[in-house]
Amino acid sequence: MRRRLVRVACGLGLLALVGCAGKGEILPIQIQPGLSAAVKPAQPGESLRVTVTTFEDLRQDKNRLATRTHLWGGESYFNVPGGLPGEATAQVLADYLAAKGWQVVKPGAPDDPADVILSGKIQEVAVDAKSGVGSTKMTTKTKVAVQARNTADGSLVRMTLGGAGSDRVFWFNPEDAQTLLNEVFTESFEKLLQDTKAEHRTLRLK
C-alpha cells in the first residue's frame, strides 16, 4: 500500500512540473506551407515571374505569435526564429507559390525581373493554447492584407487573406500550435490562387 501511494505522489509531482515548466520562455515556431504530397501544383494561365517582398507587421505586440497559458498559471510565448514575422510570412507565401508551380524570383534580381511584385501587411497572426485538466485547447487566427503590383502597367490587385482554426489535444506539444497555424495560413493562401488569374503577364482578379 505504501508503495502505491509513493507512485501516485510521484505521478502528481511530474504532472505539476510539466504544467509549470517553461513559464516565461520564448520558444521558436516555424511558419511553413502545409502542403501534402497529394496536392498537385496549379497551372497558371501564363508563366508569371513573381517576387514576394518582406511583409509589414502592423500588430501591436510584435514580440510573439503565440501564447500558452499553463494549467497552474503563468504563460510561455512563441515567435519565429529571428523574431521577424514579416520576413517569415513573406517567405512562406513564396514557398507556397513555388510549390504550386509559380515562378518565384528574388526581390530586386536585375537579371530576372518580376512581372508581379507581392507585398503585404500583417494585421493579425495569433495562436493561443490554454491548458486545462486533461487537455489543451488551441485557437488561431490570421489576417494579412496582400497587394500585387503588375510591373507591366502599374495596376494593383488587393486582397485580404484571413483564416481561423481550433483544435484540442491531450498532451500539448509546441509542434501542435505550429501545425495549426500553418494549416490556417495554407487555407488563406488557397484563396489567393482561387480568386486571381494570369492575363497577359499580369495578375488579375477573376
Describe this structure in words.
There is one protein chain. Helices cover 27% and strands 36% of the residues. It has 206 residues and is an alpha/beta fold. It has one domain (24-205): Rossmann fold. Strands 1, 2, 3, 4, 5, 6, 7, 8 and 9 form a 9-stranded mixed sheet that branches. The termini are far apart. 26% of the residues are buried. The model is unreliable at 1-22 (pLDDT under 50).
The class by helix and strand makeup works out as alpha/beta
**Rough shape?**
elongated
Assigned CATH architecture: 3-Layer(aba) Sandwich
DSSP helix fraction: 25-40%
The CATH topology is given as Rossmann fold
Measured between the Cα atoms of the first and last residue, the distance is 73 Å
Task: Write out key terms for the chains shown.
single chain, alpha/beta, Rossmann fold, two-stranded antiparallel sheet, 11 strands
How would you summarize this macromolecular structure in one to three sentences?
The chain has helices spanning 2-20, 85-99, 174-194, and strands at residues 26-28, 49-52, 56-57, 66-69, 75-79, 103-104, 116-132, 135-150, 156-169, 196-199, 202-205. The protein is α/β, with parallel strands linked by helices. The protein has one domain (24-205): Rossmann fold.
Topology summary:
Elements: H1 2-20, E1 26-28, E2 49-52, E3 56-57, E4 66-69, E5 75-79, H2 85-99, E6 103-104, E7 116-132, E8 135-150, E9 156-169, H3 174-194, E10 196-199, E11 202-205
Parallel strand pairs: 1-5, 2-6, 2-7, 3-7, 4-7
Antiparallel strand pairs: 4-5, 7-8, 8-9, 10-11
